[in-house]
Amino acid sequence: MDDTIGPQIDKNGDGHIDLKELREALEACGFKIAGYQSRVIEEEFKNSNKTKINGKLTYDEFEKLISSNEGTTHSVRVEEQLAFSDWINSNLQHDPDLKKLLPIDSEGKNLYERVKDGILLCKVINHSCPDTIDERAINKEKLTLYTKLENLTLALSSASAIGCNVINIDAHNLSKGTPHLVLGLLWQIIRIGLFNQITLEHCPGLTTLLSEDEKIDDLMKLSPEAILLRWVNYHLERAGTHRRVNNFQSDIVDSEVYTHLIKQIAPTDADVNVEALYEKDLQNRAEIMLQQAAKLKCRAFVTPQDVVNGVYKLNLAFVANLFNNHPGLEQTNGAIDGYETIEETREERTYRNWINSMGVSPHVNWLYSDLADGLVVFQLYDIIKPGTVKWNRVHRKFTNERKKFMEKLENCNYAVELGKEIKFSLVGIGGQDINEGNVTLTLALIWQLMRAYTLSILTQLAESGSPIVEKEIVQWVNNKLNAAGKKSSIRNFQDSSISDAKVVIDLIDAIKPGAINYDLVKQGSTEEEKLANAKYAISMSRKAGARVYALPEDITEVKPKLVMTVFACLMALDYIPNMDSAQQ
């Protein structure tokens, strides 16, 4: 059982999962199910005496349930299999590199076979987050088992870099087409792509959803799900209906909300109607509603059955897709206070993606508000140095609105205290700064967490077991390059020669001789050529198995902090070839 998920589902730490907490446990592992479905499983276990301890599941029993080809989890997987296959066919069918792989059959049964060479997964990642993977790094011709595994490693490392939790998944798992791993990874990638557009940067009209006494900061604190709920209710109000939604499960099963929403956001020439409301059979009503969605080219992710059953993931994706294509929001007239500060910087996005890839809960959507209670920071401490956090000092649940502020502040004070204990430089940083989301000071703490994590991996892998410091990384880089007969070298992580990325490319080739196709490497005399080299260097690092979070621009601009992490990840890769297992 994944160490980061364990504490979420085993509340009292006794090594078992209470049946009454089964739904929450399944959700922590990526299976969002309706309440009635969890009750069915609970009753099944009780009545069949499947549990060794009355009312509790062991981790082994729970893992068997997840992997089971029976019952509710299987039915959920079939629904996702169908939805994701349809989405892939619709969005990637014209890609010339996928002619042999697409379309996937109408029931999605050969989805698991089609992901085995890694090409499809790489393409899905680039669709959700364009330019994440340099196409030159993908093996496309005359594939062997080894080159397929390289593609899968590239996909996994890149998925991690965009914020997917790929802990306990490696290229070999995916090469077997293990259903729950394939679907879990695809859902994360697709969700990131859908949610990327639910921002003020992509849709300034989101300010329309603010109430009179709210500021932009209040909107930024909402999760994408919460923003979508608010968006749906905004359009329901404009449509003149009394209906409102609090969730994308039970509240949408009768298709009424969807029917009003689609009519409201549809262009006037789309010929959308509300005839679904006159159909009494819910299944037939859902079909008629989806026919209207098809007029907006938004019949994606859900079948009528998924609507009637209130399948959470797929209905969430359906609504997000509607929003992205037809937001129906006009930008508020006049200047909005705080608008200029809301766009996420590259550095913030990199740190947020790194945090999410560590498997923390809840998912971090906005760096500052989502760290304000300290709980994610504690999880990161425990990942970097297990046992650091004394969890009995942590407020995991907050009692009430009156005490919540002080409890969160106490958490943040303890988080800073822990940082000082492990020798972080936190002069002038207090718990209040984290609690209030002070940008500069919060970023200072997160950078030190990321640095500590990166160096801790090196320390674990070093034969001496002694802590690794930055100057040792520089020394290793130059020794490795020299031993391979390369002419490049670096003085430090601020060295301007790093900007053309050739030193990174040479280092990859030194670690894995022959990995680099030097015909693809540019001279690096212009900014455009430097960026092309940096993109190739980042993707080739990930293809080799290094979990690199830095972006190509970090190399061309020689951002020393993130440049250090690139070299450190490559050093760790050299210490142990199978980087996947090292970073699990």
UniProtKB/TrEMBL annotation:
- Keyword match Metal-binding: yes
Q: Name one GO cellular component term.
A: cytoplasm
Query: A Pfam family name for this chain?
Result: CH
Describe the location of the EF-hand domain by residue ranges. Answer: 8-32
The coiled-coil segments of this chain are: none
Q: Which InterPro entries match?
A: Actinin_actin-bd_CS, CH_dom, CH_dom_sf, EF-hand-dom_pair, EF_Hand_1_Ca_BS, EF_hand_dom, Fimbrin/Plastin
Q: Where is the Calponin-homology (CH) domain?
A: 78-194, 222-327, 345-454, 467-575
What Gene3D superfamilies does the record point to?
Calponin-like domain (1.10.418.10), EF-hand (1.10.238.10)
Listed name of the protein: Fimbrin
Species for this entry: Rhamnusium bicolor
